[in-house]
Amino acid sequence: MTAQVLVLYFAQSVELTGLKEEELPDVPTPISSRDLWTLLLRRHPRLAALQHHVILAVRQQYVAVGDQVVTLADGDEVAVVPPLSGG
Amino acid sequence: MTAQVLVLYFAQSVELTGLKEEELPDVPTPISSRDLWTLLLRRHPRLAALQHHVILAVRQQYVAVGDQVVTLADGDEVAVVPPLSGG
Amino acid sequence: MSEEPRDVFKLSRDRLSVQEVVDAVSSASCGAISVFIGTTREDQVEGRKVIGLEYEAYELMAQSEFTKLCDDIRARWPTVTHICIHHRLGWVKVGEASVAMAISSPHRGDGQQAVQHGISQLKAKLPIWKKEVYDTQEASWKENGE
Amino acid sequence: MSEEPRDVFKLSRDRLSVQEVVDAVSSASCGAISVFIGTTREDQVEGRKVIGLEYEAYELMAQSEFTKLCDDIRARWPTVTHICIHHRLGWVKVGEASVAMAISSPHRGDGQQAVQHGISQLKAKLPIWKKEVYDTQEASWKENGE
Question: By CA distance, what is C106's nearest residue in D?
Answer without folding.
Answer: D41
